[in-house]
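Saturday, quiet lab. Running sequence design on the structure tokens for the scaffold JK sent over.
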């Protein structure tokens, strides 16, 4: 798909095409990058995700870390761990991996600072998310939306059945209006809803997307979990809001 840039494995050439990544990101508001990580690393993520999802905290309904979401049948089930890096040294190291930070720093033009982190497990039957822009929930913090982006890393294969993310390219320059009574969501009537691009991912793929890029996802109608890691960063010059974000209760 357009905007999907594969890692260059030729040792005689640069590992990644930073200029191409920046160009795709600037045009669309997101860019997909493939084959950065090894099969060994991906298996470590799978094992770590399984360990984390077996923690007793996952079964505690009042856990701050564990967020719940409705299923297609209307039941509430655990869906994510947010934050996750404080209970996972492996994922904490990944959030600071130079392979991620170098690309994001090139896009932001500044050193990236971690803003929040989460592991979305999305078990079978769990609903997706309506159209929204991530920045809508934290625009009161005082920095520009263009100075924040998220890295979404696939642990599992995401396809049409498991509820992949659908991005709406080129709409990452401003806030969209919200439907009446649904603060934080973006109004589908304000855009060409047919212009969405569903991004399917293989394990180890990464999508970088602006916090102003509108996106949504469908329910997981497969029989497997759809595990994605999300690390959100803002430019260092915008400030360090990690502790404040979680102190505010994850708005």
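Result came back. Writing it out in full:
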């Amino acid at each position: 798909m357009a905007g999907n840039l594969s890692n260059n494995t030729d040792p005689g050439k640069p590992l990644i095409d930073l200029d191409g990544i920046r160009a795709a990101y600037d045009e669309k508001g997101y860019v997909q990058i493939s084959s950065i990580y090894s099969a060994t690393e991906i298996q470590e993520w799978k094992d770590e995700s399984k360990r984390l999802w077996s923690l007793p905290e996952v079964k505690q309904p009042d856990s701050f870390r564990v967020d719940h979401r409705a299923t297609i049948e209307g039941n509430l089930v655990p869906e994510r761990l947010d934050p996750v890096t404080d209970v996972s040294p492996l994922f904490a190291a990944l959030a600071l991996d130079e392979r991620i930070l170098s690309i994001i720093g090139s896009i932001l033009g500044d050193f990236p600072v971690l803003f929040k982190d989460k592991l979305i497990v999305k078990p079978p039957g769990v609903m997706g998310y309506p159209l929204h822009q991530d920045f809508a929930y934290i625009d009161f913090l005082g920095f520009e939306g263009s100075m924040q982006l998220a890295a979404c890393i696939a642990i599992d294969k995401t396809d049409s059945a498991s509820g992949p993310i659908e991005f709406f390219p080129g709409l990452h320059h401003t806030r969209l209006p919200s439907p009446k009574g649904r603060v934080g969501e973006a109004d589908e009537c304000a855009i060409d809803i047919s212009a969405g691009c569903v991004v399917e991912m293989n394990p180890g793929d990464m999508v970088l997307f602006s916090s102003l890029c509108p996106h949504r996802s469908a329910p997981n109608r497969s029989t497997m979990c759809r595990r994605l890691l999300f690390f959100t960063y803002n430019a260092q010059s915008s400030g360090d809001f990690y502790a404040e974000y979680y102190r505010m209760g994850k708005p």
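Notes for JK: Residues 4-247 form a domain with the Jelly Rolls fold (CATH 2.60.120.620). The chain is about 20% helix and 25% strand. Ask whether to fix the surface positions before the next round.
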